[in-house]
Amino acid sequence: MIPTKKQPLFIVSGASGVGKSCACEVLFQRETDYVVLESDILWNNIFDGDPDDGYRAYRELWLTMCANISQIGKPCVLCGCGEPRHFEVCGARKYFTDIYYLAIVCSDDVMERRMREGRGINDKNRIASSLHFNRWLQENGEKTEPSMTLLDNSDLTPEETAQQIEKWIIEKTGNENGNFQILPL
């Protein structure tokens, strides 16, 4: 099916282990004004390989899916890793009025603790990779085009992080009642 209505799309990004999935789970459980989706559910080894080719196909798939889901009159919040440059080049970008980007970041010590204790990850390479992306987001997230809003959740619970994400969505849309404007394509 080809979408006929446009909605905004909200992308919640961050390094593996930063806490975005926990916060998005809270949103998923309680939110009725938008549809919250975890991008990892569609990951498949067919997307492995060249990040520019494989990951692009993965992001095209997600954008198309979010566009179709938002035909019900509710925008999507997509939680997963990524930068604006990964989404803005996709052909399915045309299905959205705007794409808003939020990057959850935290301090290095909190990230490492969450990965080791919360997720049971002790692989030094995986931890180093997450720390590297987390630092990159802290240094460059607000410089991307479009820019990413940074949310430091070092001292926040998943519930508090979810509240901040919801506040960000309301700020970006100017909409406190959940009635999002639907535009024809």
Q: How many helical stretches? A: 6
Helical fraction equals 40-55%
How would you classify the helix and strand content by structural class?
Answer: alpha/beta
CATH 2nd-level architecture: 3-Layer(aba) Sandwich
**CATH class (first level) name:** Alpha Beta
Overall radius of gyration? 16 Å
Determine the N-to-C terminus distance: 13 Å
Q: What's the order of the H and E elements?
A: EHEHEHEHHEHE
Structurally, the number of domains stands at 1
DSSP strand content: 15-25%
Mean model confidence by pLDDT: 86
* Shape estimate: globular
The CATH topology assignment is Rossmann fold
Write the layout of secondary structure elements.
Blueprint: E1 5-14, H1 20-30, E2 35-38, H2 51-69, E3 76-79, H3 84-87, E4 96-105, H4 108-118, H5 124-140, E5 148-152, H6 158-173, E6 183-184
Parallel strand pairs: 1-3, 1-4, 2-3, 4-5
Antiparallel strand pairs: 1-6
Helix pairs in contact: 1-6, 4-5
Keyphrases for this structure?
185 residues; alpha/beta; Rossmann fold; six-stranded mixed beta sheet; 6 helices; 6 strands
